[in-house]
Backbone:
């Protein structure tokens, strides 16, 4: 089959959607499918990675209109290649039905993937959240029943809010590397085995300000806090300003490939303290490397992390987070005893080959 995945900013990238489409595309290519990814960027060009054609279209970055604009712009590609395309998968429902209807007129099978619900993001004010929720309701209603989401908890939330049943196909991870080669620790002065790590986009919903404040208030000189992600947006710069007087807080920027694997392999513990997640991809990666996980107590995380595996804190609660960081430091040997169970769970349920099998079974049923 020829499958077109539409969504993400500048693939390859470190964001959840960018990682999802690229890794799913790689595995589908391994299964002999023909995959194209269409993403937004600052310039228009086409490239090929691991046999996947990646079409970059000019769209605004981090703008509420960027997603529907990308979907509309993708129509020129869909229409011009309509005789060759079997499936079009939009990586959002946000006004995707307009482009989806036209793709169906071109005899393409169409489905939509919900990774997260935009109205849950604290960066939006009350009026904008209300407008997004109305737009989401219209979009979900018009997209019909061909909606995928990435976790059972997110499917339950969509059912509760919008009355729509979704098909759950979770995110996957690559199998951990035995000895990833990278000099990223030397480049940034990071001490192996003595740093808390968080990987992901710099966004208010991730509560990285709470993580930074907890690390500062805990006041240890033995450990470092490493934040991997693009810090050039407004929120990222605010976080850097907040941390600038603490030399043990290190921003390394976006990481991919061996740099990311090396950070995961040599970390002391992983932190994911978000208020909301779809499927917590960075957590699954940390679990695959058998790393202690300090996490916020939210449904998406509880879906993959058992009670006695995680070090649980309350989202946006600095004192709760300090308690869990102190617990891991004081009882590290006890904590890591259960980490191999986490790795086994991920490798048995969340590798990309398994996810791609579920995905192809679904699209064959459309």
Residues:
């Amino acid at each position: 089959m020829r499958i077109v995945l539409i969504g993400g900013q500048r693939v390859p990238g470190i964001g959840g959607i960018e990682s999802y489409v690229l890794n799913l595309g790689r595995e589908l290519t391994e299964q002999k499918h023909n995959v194209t990814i269409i993403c937004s960027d600052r310039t228009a060009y086409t490239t090929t990675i691991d046999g996947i054609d990646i079409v970059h279209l000019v769209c605004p970055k981090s703008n509420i209109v960027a997603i529907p604009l990308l979907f509309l712009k993708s129509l020129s590609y869909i229409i011009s290649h309509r005789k060759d395309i079997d499936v079009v998968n939009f990586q959002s429902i946000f006004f995707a039905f307009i482009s989806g209807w036209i793709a169906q007129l071109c005899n393409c099978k169409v489905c939509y993937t919900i990774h997260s619900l935009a109205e849950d993001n604290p960066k939006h004010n009350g009026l904008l959240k209300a407008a997004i929720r109305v737009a989401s309701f219209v979009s979900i209603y018009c997209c019909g029943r061909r909606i995928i989401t990435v976790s059972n908890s997110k499917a339950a939330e969509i059912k509760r809010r919008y009355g729509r049943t979704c098909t759950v196909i979770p995110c996957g991870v690559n199998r951990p590397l035995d000895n990833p080669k990278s000099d990223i620790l030397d480049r940034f002065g990071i001490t192996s085995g003595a740093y808390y790590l968080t990987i992901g986009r710099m966004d208010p919903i991730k509560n990285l300000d709470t993580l930074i404040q907890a690390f500062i208030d805990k006041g240890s000189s033995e450990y470092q806090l490493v934040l991997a992600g693009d810090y050039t947006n407004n929120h990222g710069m605010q976080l850097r300003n907040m941390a600038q007087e603490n030399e043990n807080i290190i921003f390394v920027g976006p990481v991919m490939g061996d740099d990311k694997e090396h950070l995961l392999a040599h970390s002391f513990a992983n932190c994911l303290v978000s208020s909301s997640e779809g499927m917590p991809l960075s957590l699954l990666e940390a679990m695959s490397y058998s790393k202690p996980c300090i996490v916020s107590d939210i449904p998406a995380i509880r879906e993959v992390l058992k009670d006695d595996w995680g070090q649980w804190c309350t989202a946006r609660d600095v004192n709760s987070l300090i308690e869990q960081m102190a617990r891991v430091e004081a009882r590290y040997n006890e904590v890591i005893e259960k980490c191999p169970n986490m790795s086994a769970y991920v490798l048995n349920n969340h590798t990309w080959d398994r996810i791609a099998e579920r995905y192809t079974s679904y699209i064959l049923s459309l």
Observations:
- The CA atoms of residues 146 and 179 lie 41 Å apart.
- The mean pLDDT is 94.
